[in-house]
Amino acid sequence: MTTPALDTQALTPQALTTQALAGQAWPDVPEQPLVLVPVGSIEQHGPHLPFDTDSAIAAAVAAGVAERSGGLVAPPLVYGNSGEHQSFPGTMSIGAEALRLVVVELVRSLATWAGRVVFVNAHGGNAPTLADAVKQLVGEGHDVAWVPCATEEVDLHAGHTETSLMLHIRPGDVRLERAAAGNTAPLAEILPAMMAGGVGAVSPNGVLGDPAGASAEHGRHVLEAMVDDVVRRLDR
């Protein structure tokens, strides 16, 4: 099946009205809809990106998927499992167990009126928790899944990829004059030190990668690719 082209210019917070559940009233909700729940974090993203970068990316990807599928986008879960960033002021993490309970209870509530529920996750630290929660919920008989928004093709955190995405999604919140490279080593090389001491132990500015050369145009292409990937996963 050929999927229609994605209008990425529509994937801005100002334009996400037709798929956004929060602004509607109950008679507007269709019967047994697909509900997409963005999952992100409130965590440092270097000196140049906002704390809710992951949440903004997850919401944009979910909106792109809803534009094609006719689903509804729920308000994002903005608090996640971000303990590795806790040494940086402003980071707010609820940890794995609290996130798991929120996901489980949210699906149990959604199941009274929704059809399929899909969590669209843009923070890697949430992935193991989402996998555990979804496994439990599937065992309870719920039609639920989770999908990743992969942003690590170029760098790991607050580098070229995420900076480009935010320049496309919310350019007014990107402080390019502060952008600087962080630790550019591969994850396998820095993981032991990061597991022991958090991101601050391997990158004083909180960046894992290099934002140099980031652009809104590249961010648009990355967003299109992520939406394509999620649509293919859901079709399978």
UniProtKB/TrEMBL annotation:
Its cofactor is Zn(2+). Keywords: Hydrolase, Metal-binding, Zinc. InterPro entries: Creatininase-like_sf, Creatininase/forma_Hydrolase, MftE. It comes from the Bacteria. The keyword Membrane does not apply. Pfam families: Creatininase (PF02633). Belongs to the creatininase superfamily. This is Mycofactocin biosynthesis peptidyl-dipeptidase MftE. It comes from Nocardioides eburneus.
